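Posting for a labmate who doesn't have an account.
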Amino acid sequence: MKVIIVGGGIGGLAAAAAFHQRGMQVEVLERAAAFTEVGAGLTVQPNGLRALDVLGLGDPLRAHGLADPLVGVRNSRGGWLIRNDVATLRRTFGASVLIPRTTLIDLLKAAVPAESLRPATEVHSVRPDGTVHHSGGVSEADLVVGADGVNSVTRRSLWPHLPGPSYVGYTTWRFMAPPHPVEGSVETWGSGERFGQVPMADGRVYCYVIANAPAGTHIGLDELRRRFTGWHRPIPALLESVSGQAALQHDTYELPALPTYVSDNAAVLGDAAHAMTPNLGQGACQALEDAVTLAHTVNRLGLRAGLQEYDRLRRPRTQQIVRLSRQVGAPGHWTSAPLVALRNTVFPRLPKSLLTRSLGPTLTWTI
């Protein structure tokens, strides 16, 4: 069986590795000139690590250093809104791994034959029968997998009348700060603004900023520093420590629920199927789950039955996580003063076990 994969990011390379592992011929078409990843840090949570275990890549990734779960959420003055029982979370779900995104890309790429990788190949359209039109000509396969992101050409080709991604109302910056002492993985909520810090094994700090803004709004690092001047330590120092070129800004989009992830001899996975907000940190993990599940079901049941089983297993789960991610982040973007005050009063009184119960269905996945 030949499998063409459109998109050479985390989901696409994971799918290529999974199908290759099962003895199938793979071809990965990537628009960029090289197989790499634009971004800063990436937390691979326990469910994502179990997906990588299926590929034999979980332990090589764990060797880069384990990361603790989220310590909690503070308000802008530093008071705790949510204080997690980190030991219980670690014991219940296992550890995560925090790495530069390029580390995972390189690991996945090494699991795919070099001759299967076709960079600088822009896909123009995909047909349900397995035909792919691209800048290098036309390719045919038994199965086409669209792993080409939130603005997926594969999805638009297969379902041209379905709605596309929608802007959720906030934009996100990500950057790596130089080594700085921090207390662990902490997120801070203000009024329509959030700041996250995650320490890396090498001492650097992966940071992200999420703020309400109209779509397409460019906000520079100087403006971010001004906005967060009065926030608790070490947020101002982290923002001061990074250059403007190192901060990447992307508007945040979510994909409305698709009625199916498969069409004849084609399927979509990752952001092409279920783009979600970053509030649960599950985007890459769900793409990894998708990839190994798709290869597993097709290999076990054959093409058509395997695709239907993939859709049955993955669509309800991922669409539930899309909804949960949106809900989890919503209180951090409230701008009404009474609502923010209510949040800051009520959240510290919530039981610590609430997070453990809410994360259980997401983090305990197995194939």
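Reply:
Got it, the structure tokens are right above this. The longest helix spans residues 303-329.
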